[in-house]
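Subject: Protein entry, chain in single-letter code together with its fold tokens

Category: Structural biology, sequence-to-fold work with a learned token vocabulary.

Notation: Tokens come from a learned vocabulary of local backbone shapes, not from coordinates.

Start of record: The labelled sequence and token lines come straight after this line.
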Amino acid sequence: MKKYLLIFAFSPVIFGACTQTSNSGKVKEETQEAVDAMGDALKQEKDRLKQELQQALNKVDQKIAALRSELDQAGEESKAKIEQKIEDLEAKRDQLQQELSQFDQQMAETWQDFKSNVQKTLEDLENDLKKSL
């Protein structure tokens, strides 16, 4: 879906380039600028999401600390329930922590795939423009 959206976003540049074969360098430059702008937007979105993940981790840690405090004052019946809540939250926190640690690698791979696809499209476009001369 993202690829189709990106192709749609670049279609004015690509189709405009087909009518102006003498400006293939300009098209390539404009497309590269668009790719760079998308990279900047992607980085901002990545940073925002990473910050949200970190905030969620902090909230979970605070809740676990509060439950541990309650555990000290709880009666025997309540202790089992509180301990189960702590265990569940710790499992979710660990999963979230793992996702956060893999986040940068996954984003880098996604960006590299996107960038490679766009560069290949640019090369194909430039070759097509040269052939049409």
